Amino acid sequence: MTKKNFEPRHLETLDRDLGRFSNLEKATSYAARPMVGPGIAFIFVVLAGLAAALFFGQTSNTMIVVIAAGFGAYMALNIGANDVANNMGPAVGANALTMGGAIAIAAIFESMGALLAGGDVVSTIAKGIIAPESMGTAEVFIWAMLAALLSSALWVNLATWVGAPVSTTHSVVGGVMGAGIAAAGFGAVSWGTMGKIAASWVISPVLGGVVAAGFLWFIKARIVYQPDKIAAARKWVPVLVGIMAGAFAAYLALKGLKKIIKIDIQMALIIGFAVGIGIWLAMIPFIRRQSEGLENRNKSLKVLFGIPLVVSAALLSFAHGANDVANAVGPLAAIVQASQSGDFTAAVSIPFWVMIIGAFGISFGLFLFGPKLIRMVGSQITKLNPMRAYCVALSAAITVIVASWLGLPVSSTHIAVGGVFGVGFFREWDTERRLKKARVEIPDRPTIAKEERRRRKLVRRSHFLTIIAAWVITVPAAALLSAVIFWVIRGIAA
């Protein structure tokens, strides 16, 4: 190498070239980052198929089961990406949990719920929507379940991409219905069941919103607007935590533990009442100690609701895992049973490896794709603090208990999101009410222009309309997509 190569101008050129390479590496890394999630998800889907081949064994139907396991894994990923946001969004939006902490807690409790108490509603998903005997043969039944799995997963994937939290239960129900109609006509569908599901579009969010707004009104009237907020909190926060504990105890006894023990609504309410009283008494000295030294202002009250909110989010995740894992593994379990025995009309039993796919898929989906919907539910619909988020979590548990007692069909997704809307609309009403009261007390107070009041709305109307539209079209959209996929599968297999 000559001396000329080390002249300053050559070194400057070399530095520029190295800088370009460095920038190129950064750009490549940035461009590749969005592909990491889908890449890991694809690997999980492939591993689910390999696990199915290993556990199912070598038969003439092995390939069908492998494909079904891949579809089931894909659906479980989408449940984690979309549905779990409803449990964790309020806690994250209220800054009671970081995004990482929320994902870790949800992954653990969703998996525990799915593996310990999941699978009770699998037969409803696989058999309660269509009459299996109308399918004629096990082969047609398997095709219908495959179409239902893939269509519901695709629809939830699309909703997650758009940023709309939809009911994964309604998605898979629509998928099963569409495939059933394509396979055996409209007579194959249990229209009574579908009528109840349609009713839940209205019942779930309205009940959730009303209950959440009612608790927020109670907290504001009894604590926030009191002259001595800390003294009022010492009295009422233990009561509210006791109500939450009782509601969740009854909720988990009724909905989350059916696989372990059968409990009717009366016994669940007795269990909830006993747990609620015990927690209320235990929280009185705890809240008194926690409130020592706090200033008499609203910011101090948020501290007292932080831990109960985190606990409620964890319990909601457990119950969600116990119930909604069936959306991923219900059709898959039915396919495995029909492929093994040829019997597609009997009650569905769930192999443990199938539950593993559902549980792990929900956790992976939450970890890889969940933050987008968590942020949307937690902060983009309306601003949440620990008190408001606590009302949403409490509403979810109480509404399910009330609906079960009344025999009303409800969706946990719609309840939670309805609770967020209820809190937001109550805040709008309460703010307007206080402004009117201030104008009466102080006549000379400057009025706010109508346009400015509209700009200050506390619920984003664009998100509200997007979510409502997604809810309404979920069942028909999933059904139409499922019918098309069924015809494609039948055309390929024929």
TrEMBL record:
Q: Where in the cell is it found?
A: Membrane
Which keywords does this chain's UniProt record carry? Membrane, Phosphate transport, Plasmid, Transmembrane, Transmembrane helix, Transport
* Top-level taxon in the UniProt lineage: Bacteria
Keyword check for Transmembrane, yes or no.
Answer: yes
Q: Where are the transmembrane segments?
A: 35-56, 62-80, 92-109, 140-160, 172-192, 198-219, 231-253, 265-283, 303-322, 350-369, 389-406, 464-489
Q: Which InterPro entries match?
A: Phos_transporter (IPR001204)
The annotated topology with respect to the bilayer is: Multi-pass membrane protein
What Pfam family is a match, any one? PHO4
Q: What is its main location?
A: membrane
**Similarity comment: family membership:** Belongs to the inorganic phosphate transporter (PiT) (TC 2.A.20) family.
Designated name of the protein: Phosphate transporter
Organism of origin: Aliisedimentitalea scapharcae
